[in-house]
Amino acid sequence: MEILTADFFQRALTGGLLIGITAPLIGIFLVLRRLSMIGDTLAHVTIAGVALGFLTGIYPIAVGLVFAVVASFAIEKLRKAYKGYAELSIAIIMAGGVALASLFFTLGMGYNNDVMSYLFGSIYTLDTTDLYVVGAVTVVVVIVITLFFKEMFLLTFEEDAASVSGLPVKMLNLLITVMTALVISTAIKIVGALLVSALLTIPAACSLLIARSFKQSVVFSVIIAEIAVVIGLMAAGIWNLAPGATIVLLLIAMLILTLIGKKGFSA
Amino acid sequence: MNSENASTSTGAYCHDNIIELDHVSFSYKDQKVITDFSFVIKERDFVGVIGSNGAGKTTLMKMMVGLLQPVQGEIRLFGEPIRRFQDWERIGYVPQKNSFNPLFPATVREVVLSGLYSNKKIFKRVGRSDQQKCDEALEVMRITNIADKRIGQLSGGQQQRVFLARALINQPDLLILDEPTVGIDAQTQADFFELIKHMHAHHHMTFLMVSHDIEMIEGYLGTEPRDQCGAINFYVRHSHDQDCSKPGLQHSIKK
């Protein structure tokens, strides 16, 4: 139990709590726009960046972040080229990310252990710099979502209506994509690249079942994510498990409970 | 064209140009959809747009609200070239029924309020007067009792009323309806059309409606289209036989 008071665990918990705010906040917009898979894609691209960071000795999250932002721009571009096949652009960029990542892995055999922690997440790896980066991203995401909440609602609900209302649709779309890249590249150190998209999508999936309004569904998804992060990190700390796994399994358990509970109520 | 602009701005109030298409062409890749088409919609016109699928109705509508840019020619809204047009709150827009995700967790109230979120409302809070406007729009459309329901739980006819309430919340000068009655039963369609006709007769509003329902359109707008663009027909009826000096949404819709 003394692990829970250790410095590294406190850092992981703080970082986890921050990501527990940002990931579902962005995730609900992605899910409602049928872009659930974008999280996975950006995570894989970020891993390529992280691997390159190790290879070149540059701060890995920074390289990962640049990769993710570039990829998110590329997805937007491709999305326009293949209108109506949004998932195609996501699949292409995902393949590119995995290919680049595996290329960089094979170039730098020596530090694959470090890279592994980015794939599955780890409570040991978060240092103070990471915490500042996560904190900065959280501040940015919360401010942007608060400022543009009603515009993003309309954009997500009905993009054409947002256009006809004269909203800067392109700019808002870009904001969402860039923020997604920011959130994912900072979240992968805790949750791991393979599981980060679960933290974006499953809280939204739960809250969609129970929320009575859009505002409620945003609040619920943040609460659900926070519960999973706190309990998941503790379980990972106490039993020495990968935190990505515990958090995501908890989320899925909560989703199943919600589904059962809903059925019970409606029956 | 400039001289015409100048004359309309000083001319009779009821005859301002609301939408002007000025030698507009549009092509999708190599295929010409619309060629050199000009058309003017004047204040208090009711314009019905009828055409088979693929005739370019949607393209035309999208150009008129700035979702697509014409390859050639110019479009003006309220006398202003569309790329410089800023007064989007003057336009109410009722989309096609299936243009939104039915599982979306929004309440009726949230959807109706979103009619206020225009370019001029960015960075501004939704205040008490906005809530009042919303209450009024809900009441006028007789959907106050379902204000807190999720939009996906409603029937097609109710959803249509919600989107009409959203379009009306700004008391727009121009109401654009894109196949508003597709997928709704006949009685509800007829009710909806009655409502629209009533608004046209008693309110200072211009209507542009795309429809499949040629009977309804001809019943109200006459059997002779005023203009044609390829296979698209434009039926027009003008209305200003009513004193509209009293402001407010209530007066215009309730008898």
TrEMBL record, chain A:
The keyword Ribonucleoprotein does not apply. The chain crosses the membrane at residues 12-32, 52-76, 88-111, 131-149, 161-184, 190-211, 218-239, 245-261. It is found in: Cell membrane; Membrane. One of its GO terms (biological process) is response to zinc ion. Keywords: Membrane, Transmembrane, Transmembrane helix, Transport. InterPro entries: ABC_BtuC-like, ABC_TroCD. GO terms for cellular component: ATP-binding cassette (ABC) transporter complex. It comes from the Bacteria. Pfam families: ABC-3. The keyword Transmembrane helix applies. It is a multi-pass membrane protein. Belongs to the ABC-3 integral membrane protein family. This is Zinc transport system permease protein. It comes from Fontibacillus panacisegetis. The lineage of its organism: Bacteria, Bacillati, Bacillota, Bacilli, Bacillales.
UniProtKB/TrEMBL annotation, chain B:
Pfam families: ABC_tran. GO terms for molecular function: ATP binding; ATP hydrolysis activity. It comes from the Bacteria. Residues 19-254 form the ABC transporter domain. The keyword ATP-binding applies. Keywords: ATP-binding, Nucleotide-binding, Transport. SUPFAM superfamilies: P-loop containing nucleoside triphosphate hydrolases. SMART domains: AAA. InterPro entries: AAA+_ATPase, ABC_transporter-like_ATP-bd, ABC_transporter-like_CS, Metal_Ion_Import_ABC, P-loop_NTPase. Belongs to the ABC transporter superfamily. PANTHER family: METAL TRANSPORT SYSTEM ATP-BINDING PROTEIN TM_0124-RELATED. This is Zinc transport system ATP-binding protein.
